[in-house]
Amino acid sequence: MTRPNIIAFVYEDSKPKIFLRCLLFSTARRGNIIENMYVIFTQNSERRWFSSWGYGDHPNLVRGSGLFVGPEGVAVYHHFVAEESERLRPAGGCKISVYASTLGHKQDRLLYSLHLRISENDSAILEDSTNGPLIYDWNPEHKEYRRH
Description:
The protein has one domain: Immunoglobulin-like (Sandwich), CATH 2.60.40. It is built from one helix and twelve strands. It has one helix at residues 120-127, and strands at residues 6-12, 15-24, 32-43, 46-50, 52-55, 62-63, 67-69, 74-81, 92-102, 109-118, 134-139, 144-147. The protein is globular, with a radius of gyration of 15 Å. The protein starts with 5 loop residues before the first strand and ends with a strand.
């Protein structure tokens, strides 16, 4: 998995959602099949699972399952929704880890992990679900994610 060029936080039906865009690729000549993907959001030693996975662009968003990833890769948005509707309060540093379970492997694989610093102001914006998504873009000059 390549570094996501965009990471966003939003609410979907009152549940927190993280979505990102990246290229998934396979080094296996015949590719791999992803059975499931999920995100673990870690902050202040607390872990939160975003285990409902979908991928694609609106209006063609589909529930994730059985995604074939060949050597040429698949570049799409990946959407992860939390199980519970507890509000996100992500001010400060956080870690976002993306995992996948692939066909034929018993253990899930960590595909990518990144650190993100979210300001108090941005966190307050996110607490009000009517504000829309809180979006961060990768800034290659500063080698960090910056608010869009």
